[in-house]
Every structure is written in C-alpha cells, then in structure tokens.
Write a structure and sequence with these properties.
Arc Repressor Mutant, subunit A; 56% helix; two-stranded antiparallel ribbon
Length: 101
C-alpha cells in the first residue's frame, strides 16, 4: 500500500459519519448493505449518506455492486488489512508486542 493510499483511507475514516458507515458495513460483513438500510440504521439522510459513501469508495475502503435496481456496499477487507499492515509494519521494532493497555 502506498503512502498516498494510506493517507486517503485515514482521511476518509477521520470523519465521524464515514467512520460510523464503515463500521456498520464491517459488522454486516460480505453481505453488505444497501444505502436505504444504512440510512435507516444510522439515521443519515440519503443525500448525506451518498456523499459519504462516495468518499469511502474513492478511498478504496468500500466497493459497490449493482444488484438489480440497488447498489450493495461492502467493506473492502483486503484494503482494510493492507492499511492495518502498513500501520503496524514496524511495530515494536520487530520485538513481540505486549498486551494492549
């Protein structure tokens, strides 16, 4: 993962609504959610949600697949793993990390 990709992903997740949307998609897993369900569950107006989904998609954190008349949004687990791998690549200078405090 390139530094620019990491910065885009972190910037996208640094906004409260987008973080909530991303976490809702992660909870749902590979099944994904349609925007109307995300809107209902999180109480986000559809136009606002559309903007935030676009930002998450541009950051390559989610994908959208057309199923009939609907778009199903899913988290991109590979991108999420790459981001976490980038952030922890040199964790603890190669030593085993202790338990979280």
């Amino acid at each position: 993962m390139q530094k620019q990709d990491v910065l885009a992903a972190l910037a996208a997740l640094a906004q409260e609504t987008r973080l909530d949307v991303f976490r809702a998609l992660v909870r749902e897993g590979r099944e994904g959610l349609v925007p109307s369900e995300i809107s209902r569950v999180l109480g986000i107006p559809p136009a606002t949600l559309s903007f935030h989904l676009k930002e998450l998609k541009n950051a390559q954190l989610v994908s959208a697949e057309r199923q009939g008349r609907s778009l199903v949004y899913r988290p991109d687990f590979a991108a999420m793993q790459e981001l976490l791998g980038y952030l922890t690549e040199n964790c603890c200078q190669g030593e085993g990390c202790g338990p979280a405090r």
